[in-house]
What does this fold into?
Amino acid sequence: MSRQVLVNAAAAARMAPSSHNTQPWRFRIVGDTLELHADPRRHLSVIDGERRQLVESGGCALFNARAAVRAMGFADEVEVFPDAEDRDHLATLRVGAPIITDELDRELLRAIPLRRTNRRPFLNRPVSLADSTALIALASRPGVWFGRLDPDQKRRLGRVIDDADRTHHANPVYRAELMHWLVEPGKRRKDGIPLEERAYRLPLPLEKELVRAAPLVMVIGTAGDSPHDWLAAGESLQALLLHATLRHLAAAFLNQALEIPPLRREVMSIIGRGEHPQMVLRLGYPEQPIEHPAPRRSLEDVLLVVD
It folds into this structure.
């Protein structure tokens, strides 16, 4: 029974979001445990030199796996970074004792395949304070904080994002890395960003305007800035995204604001706290829902079962 639970958990984990849809993870079932490993071959070395986004993506996958285990009626027991000699071994998940699954656990599992990154404009419809407060409460984890930006902060953030986009696109090495992960229509790749979706971030000034017009812009941050903090931020991010999905909200990532160290410091100044921002995203009700999910590698591509 526990073996099938772990297989199902890995299947849910592989549906997590990741930068450029690189899906930078590998899973191993060893006995009664599911190991989550980062895949360094899928590391975006240009925009993520510190591996922060790589580990955050792993945190998103870990949250999915844990949600799946709970929805199947078992406690989720997790040890993070269990091997001090292997920085790619992010976590080990063990199936715990049977529990009574509540409706929220089942709803989160249902939301996993429904979640979409939506880079398109959002409706001019506000996200209520009650909804955003509920999302923060449901996504909170020890050591992780959330900030909601007011209109002036969104305007200032828009400038930072515009600076980041222009700096990135002037760098031929960045452009080469991006082009590697763009998927043209008709290609049978199981990873990367569909070209028609990436087009919603071009031309460059568009992103700045999308930020200013977004009903809700949030920053997720942590008190520290270690891999443990990045993993926790990823778990909180995925919790936020799944609960937002259940409220028919969509989200788009604004990672570029944090990918250049001087601009990351500007974001810290904008939000008015000296702690470490780990993710910036805009949320709202989509004008155009994304009907088809981004391509995904098969479970066989990412899961190894060790007998």
In short: Residues 52-71 form the longest helix (20 residues). Residues 199-203 have pLDDT under 50 and may be disordered.
